[in-house]
Automatic annotation (TrEMBL):
Subcellular compartments: Secreted
Highest taxon of source: Eukaryota
Pfam families named among the record's database cross-references: Self-incomp_S1
Protein name: S-protein homolog
A biological process term (GO) from this entry: rejection of self pollen
GO cellular component entries: extracellular region
InterPro entries: Self-incomp_S1
Organism: Prunus yedoensis var. nudiflora
Primary residence: secreted
Signal peptide positions on this chain: 1-27
Keyword terms: Secreted, Self-incompatibility, Signal
Family label: Belongs to the plant self-incompatibility (S1) protein family.
Amino acid sequence: MTIFPFSFKPNYVVFFVFAAIFFAALALPGHANSANQTNLGYPINKWVVHVVNQMGASKTLVAHCKSKDDDLGIRDVLPGNEFNWSFKENFGGTTLFWCNIHNNHQHANFQVFWHEDETKSSWLHYRCNWKECFWVVKDGGIYIT
Ligand SMILES: *[C@@H]1O[C@H](CO)[C@@H](O)[C@H](O)[C@H]1NC(C)=O
Ligand SMILES: *[C@@H]1O[C@H](CO)[C@@H](O)[C@H](O)[C@H]1NC(C)=O
């Protein structure tokens, strides 16, 4: 007795179902568990990093953010404004962005995005709510909110 129609062999049907689930999982990030979009071990969601100038009165922030592959240029961020960009993680798990920032008096160099293996830590992913990281530069320091 066969429960499979036409000339499909069971293996093909199983393969089809598996392939359909696999591609559906890739195509619908976060479908199964809304916020987490690392499916099947592949980082596929789009991230946005924001660098926000909340320093005191009329202090312009100069931000120079980069990854190994991208130089995002030197940006003047006016008080109350921000600089942002979006990207997808590479499949090698080596994504890393950092920023050099300064105002007239102070200078800092810090990482704003790095790859996280959620089996070990989701410190950054959690703070970015699995989509957007807000780095806020204030007079007293740099905060992720
Ligand atoms: C999924 O995301 C939630 C927050 O939306 C987080 O608390 C949870 O640890 C994540 N689970 C996994 C398996 O990554
Ligand atoms: C990115 O920053 C610009 C201002 O430079 C702002 O207009 C835009 O809304 C920001 N994008 C996002 C996704 O917040």
